Amino acid sequence: MESIQPLVSIIVSCYNHEDYITPCIESIVRQTYKNIELIVIDDGSTDKSADILQQLSQKYHFSFERQENMGLTRTLNKALSQAKGKYIAPIGSDDILMLDKTEKQVEFLKNHHDIAVVGGNIICIDDNGNIKQKQRFKDYREIDFKDVFLTPKQIPAAPTVMIRASVLSEVNGFNTETNLEDLDLWLRITHAGYRIAVLNDVLAYYREHSSNSYKNYQFMTESLMQTYADYNNEPEYPDVKNQVLLRMFLKVSKKDRAYAWKILKQISPKYYNWKVVRGLFHLILPDKKS
């Protein structure tokens, strides 16, 4: 017989987040849902993160380990190997959970056995915890592989997700060969036939700062191409590949002219559209720095 309150494993991999880790941990231990195990691993931080976590673990009695740097996905998989929960909720060590997140998501998954992952909306904050002026909130939706593959903007925000442990085990956890662990995981889970639900509730604060990887356009472009290449047998792959290149070309044309030209050469001419025109306009304008 299933427990009235199934165990939820919340896992945190921390790296150099001494300024953010305390509010992250306190948002977890203060959850309204109480049947939680918290597993935290410091992945070789060079700042005071590990010392702060050691003190927090003694205060709040959660599992904490410090290790030599292994990288995010290997650390998450290590935490998964220790987790005993029916549901798994990873969260970045610089993000903050809404206090009712776990309660809402457990109730949803208990009542929707066909859903493998549930996420929600976020509020974006800056380095200092100030709420950003521009926010985007989306309506409830359920997505499958085609949705994730063709329109990845529909995927849930990373700090809001809760995943069935059985499904994570089936797809062998996080892929240690990718730089986009979230997109890769949602593609693999939905490709296996499962669906993802995204609630219209706000479930977390997401911190945007200079080290967010999505602001490194070359890293992001190459990582996206690597991730989608695993599905090059899908009939829509040429469309997906060229649409990614078009989006990144327009963004990169404003920041890195040399790399923008490299992206343009990879785009099939039959996909040229207004993004190419706008990108070329940026490229031929005089460099403001000169």
Keywords:
nine-stranded mixed β-sheet, Spore Coat Polysaccharide Biosynthesis Protein SpsA, Chain A, 290 residues, 20% strand
Written account of the structure:
The protein starts with 7 loop residues before the first strand and ends in a 6-residue tail after the last helix. Strands 1, 2, 3, 4, 5, 6, 7, 8 and 9 form a nine-stranded mixed β-sheet that branches. The mean pLDDT is 94. Helix 9 runs parallel beside helix 11. It has eleven helices and nine strands. It folds into two domains: 200 residues, Alpha-Beta Complex (Spore Coat Polysaccharide Biosynthesis Protein SpsA, Chain A); 69 residues, no CATH class. Helix 2 links the parallel strand 2 and strand 3. The chain is 40% helix and 20% strand. The chain has 290 residues and is α/β, with parallel strands linked by helices.
Major sheet attributes = 9 strands, mixed
Structural class from helices and strands?
alpha/beta
Instruction: Count the beta strands.
Output: 9
Proportion of helical residues = 40-55%
Q: Which fold name is given in CATH as the topology of the largest domain? A: Spore Coat Polysaccharide Biosynthesis Protein SpsA, Chain A
Number of domains: 2
CATH class of the largest domain: Alpha Beta
CATH architecture of the largest domain: Alpha-Beta Complex
**What is the 3D shape?**
globular
Strand content: 15-25%
Helix and strand element order: EHEHEHEEHEEHEHHEHHHH
Average of the residue pLDDT scores:
94
Low-confidence blocks of residues: none
